[in-house]
Amino acid sequence: MKKTLLSVAVIAALLTAGCSKTAMTPDQTLVPETSVLFRARLASGSAGLPVSTLPSAVKTYLDQNVSGFTLIKVEKKFQPGTTTAWGTQVTVLQNGMPVDYFFDTTGAPMTRPAGPRGEVITRLTAAQLPASISSYLNQTYAGYQLVVAESMRSTSGVEEFRVQIVSNNQRIDVHFDGSGAFRDAHTAPGNLSTVHSVSYIPRDSLSDAIKTVLTSTFANYTYGWAEQHIHDGTPLYDVKLFSSTGPFVIHFDAAGAQVAPMGPGGQTTPGSTTAVTGPGPKPGNPSPPSPGSATPPAGANYQFMLDATKLPSAITAYLETNFSGYTFLVADLHTPPTGTTGQYNVDLAVGSQLYKLRFSSSGELLKAEARG
Description:
By secondary structure, this protein is mostly beta strands.
């Protein structure tokens, strides 16, 4: 399977604040990667998961029915707020578009399940949109590109439509009522011409300037790993460091100067670090950290691991079988709000490709996705 990089210019929800109470609510059964402008963020290719991460029955179905797919994400799904599994959701790249497939607990294909409030959401093609919606879009956004169109029918039978388009390099969410009449529209931040790709970079490959800062200013931290983020041709380096209570992310430009994280348009501003309360980088306070100042969120029960030997043997065996030659980066053990046993989140790299995985305490794969 070809492994290149996902273009990730922007990630945003389909709906924003300002919609009325009767307006369409977000589809919480979809992850952002597949429910928003995914196709426009694939300019530099696709990052693939090993198909061995699929349940055997699911793999058989896709092999037989979905030609030439690239596996992007696989996740065991649970009834909202419970530990009862209803099946598996798989996202594949097919003909340049992300497509979701749903399977029950036996691996048999099933229709898309209702959302947490019982709403039924259906993906639509351009031809399936009501004529009034197509007419409105053609008149208002001449030459637009359709990204995704969905209908949502609530438990009371009320139907609404949401459409995401690209117009003049701007993505726009347009909402319609059940009759196809325009309701509202929201533009999302970020320019679609900006390409963002992410890859793992060994410490030895960092610039001397970055290494100097790490060994001087941040000598009291434990080095985790580094990522190269390229925004529209401009490289930025995120270095993950750990103290006794949590991780931090230090952001550098190509010259080794500390900067704040790049925004959707690829801009940088003076800054240095991001305090992180989970296993990955998140925007936060740009002030320099002091060792021990990061605190995991209350009740999260996080236990960070920089030593791969602390993983259960079942997880280690799974990684060795399915991600041959991997580089272990970090793991955390936590108990989710709806669970009674801990789960392991694992970050690793194979070559320059980054992956995020989640396992049960017994070593069962719950989620896997390729970063890029």
